[in-house]
Automatic annotation (TrEMBL):
Transmembrane segments: none
Identification of the protein by name: Integration host factor subunit beta
GO molecular function, one term: structural constituent of chromatin
Gene Ontology CC annotations of this record: cytosol
Signal peptide start-end: none
Pfam family, one: Bac_DNA_binding
Stretches for region Disordered: 96-121
Organism (species): marine sediment metagenome
Length: 121
């Protein structure tokens, strides 16, 4: 398993679309900021075939320190839940069935058509 950074994703998308890395990075960051904003407002984000992000409220509870066995109060908090979508579920299952145990690039995902750069202002 490999960790893919935002920079690597930006590079891939820029190469695939022929767009400048700066533009792709800005768009990706704006997209991520919008996800954070909407989840912060308590909204649910649904991306067909990819998955659903939801903000959930976790109830306050009493936990126990395993070292001292002392009971501690854990306050209520909001967290994010992600439910995997259909296409991602299929790709993950496909990756598990592969001989190498890794998902193969490409597959069922449609290639992204290059978009022309925005007109210069």
């Amino acid at each position: 398993m490999e960790t893919i950074t935002k920079k690597e994703l930006v590079d891939r998308i820029a190469d695939q679309t022929g767009s400048k890395r700066v533009v792709v990075k800005d768009i990706l960051q704006r997209f991520l900021n919008e996800i954070i904003s909407e989840l912060g407002r308590g909204n649910r984000l649904e991306f067909r075939d990819f998955g659903v992000f939801e903000s959930k409220q976790r109830a306050a509870r009493i936990a126990q320190n395993p070292k001292t066995l002392q009971r501690v109060h854990v306050p209520a908090k909001r967290t994010v839940k992600f439910k995997v979508g259909r296409l991602m579920k299929l790709k993950l299952a496909e990756g598990m069935e592969g001989a190498s145990g890794q998902a193969q690039a490409g597959g069922d995902v449609a290639p992204v058509k290059p978009t022309p750069p925005p007109p210069a202002e």
